[in-house]
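Here's what a typical entry looks like (B9 domain-containing protein 1):
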Amino acid sequence: MKDSEITKFLISFNGRIDFVLFPGGVFDDQIFLQYDVVWGPDWDPISGLNSGTSQMAMSGRDPERVVFNFPIEMVFSSTNVFGWPQLIITVKARNTFGDSLRGYSAVLLPPMTGERVISAPLTRPRPATLLGEWLAWLTGRYPELADPKMLANVLRTESYGSVVVKMSMVSKDLRKLGYDNEPPACRNNCRQ
């Protein structure tokens, strides 16, 4: 196929949600996460799951870290980079009151080739009133979003830790369509 006939590029993401870090410590025995991948209108998923739920996990030797090593793999095709895929992560705990929210995180999947380690803040909505804050503290149940994809909007939130994602990206025909996704370090040093 001639370069002038190429109208779409392919992007492959392969990696894992490595761990969740709670700086104040983990006070729950069972933590799990759910993820959704969101993308723009010109993007078409070719393979992989666009949502999933992890296993139950707990902190080990490090009382602030819960390790998941939860694999994620997706392949997309698109005609332009608008609406680049994002990973929306919801962290929950199972306790006597049922499933309780611990936070949300939004991760832009890497736009450059190679492997990246991404640390994204974990946030959760704040209760609207003092009574709501007191009840959330007492029961451990914080307000939840009806749709976690609302993270793209402006919300009143509080920080509650971070999520670390290791992800690699491989592309096909992206450069042929005029997009440069070569890492900056390689632009200066690879051709010397």
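The first strand starts at residue 9 and ends at 21.

More examples are in the samples folder.
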